[in-house]
Structures are given as structure tokens and as C-alpha cells.
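Let's practice the habit of predicting before peeking. Look at the sequence and jot down your guess about where helices and strands might fall. Then scroll down.
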Amino acid sequence: MAKLILAYVYTGVLAENADKLHSDSDNQTKGGFVTQLCAVDVAQKAASKGDIALARMIVSDALTIVQLLLVGVDVELMLNYSDQITIERVLRQLPSDVNTTMLMLVLEKCDPSAYAQLLTYAATKGLVALVKQLMKKVHDRGH
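Done guessing? Here is the structure:
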């Protein structure tokens, strides 16, 4: 589950690809090819961020993963059914340039008791966006 959620994080442009697929009159023949291109793009992004395990997982099961992403499997729904360990794993594996909206969505599902440990981890790894959002969460909880 964590890897599928992370696949969402790495695929900011995937929604555009889904729109292209759905609007393409010839998507019966092009759909599989475009889906494979999406998988390659997602895997390359994951690998460029150092997440080789995610890249391998996407390549090994590319069709399933990308089809789930393209049909709009709701990331919030996946987060709602994820346990705390999965949420923390996702937060630890987020790329440093993660979309703030996605970061907040995942962070909303995180147990506040994990903030201190995550803050230490994020600061050590230089994950500035995560540090900022965690500090904001801690500050907001104090007021």
C-alpha cells in the first residue's frame, strides 16, 4: 500500500496522461502503449529520487499500478485504509520536492504522537517541506 501511495506522489503529471487517454478517440490501440510510457516515466522519477525499490515495483507490475492510477483510484481512500506504520513509511520516503498538497494529505492521516520522531528524521535527511509542515502541525496543536 505504501508503494502505491508513493507512486501517486511521484506522478504529478499522470492526471494529464489520463485525460489524454480518455480523450483519445483511438485509445483502444494506443492505451496500452501510453500506459507503458506512463509506467516508464513514473519508474524513472522514482529512480531519480533514489527509490529503486519503487522503480522496480512499478516496472514489475507496471500495467496494474498505472491502470489504477489512470482510472483515479483515490489516494485519500488508500490513506484511510492504511495503518500508522504505512503512513509513517510513506512520510519517510517522500521526495524532497513533494507537492505540498500531497504532503498535507498524508500528514493529516499521521498520528501526532509520531511528529517528534518524524521531525528528527526529516531534519536529518534535509526534507525541508516535511520539516516545515511538521513544525506547523506542532505549532497549531499548541494553540
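How did you do? The first helix runs from residue 2 to 9.
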